[in-house]
User: Fold NB-ARC domain-containing protein from Solanum verrucosum.
Amino acid sequence: MCNIGKTTLTKKVYDDYICSQFDKHAWVTIFEEYNERQMLLEIVSTITGSNQEMSDDQLMKIV
Ligand SMILES: Nc1ncnc2c1ncn2[C@@H]1O[C@H](COP(=O)(O)OP(=O)(O)OP(=O)(O)O)[C@@H](O)[C@H]1O
Ligand SMILES: [Mg+2]
Assistant:
């Protein structure tokens, strides 16, 4: 169901629990049509601050 607060609730859980439970954490938005490499780049970029030169395999290993 659209617009019922899924993202708001998930972000609250992320901010209040996930961030304090895990050293490494990343918040990314995935759309119905998504690009796997772009998703991995966003996660690894958040975690390490760098990513562009890595292969998909390297990105997946980090994640
Ligand atoms: N508990 C709440 N009380 C009042 N307003 C809320 C509450 N939770 C979310 N909202 C508001 O409702 C709107 C939709 O919230 P949100 O974007 O989290 O929904 P969603 O289910 O993720 O939507 P979508 O299906 O489009 O991704 C936002 O304007 C948000 O601020
Ligand atoms: Mg949403």
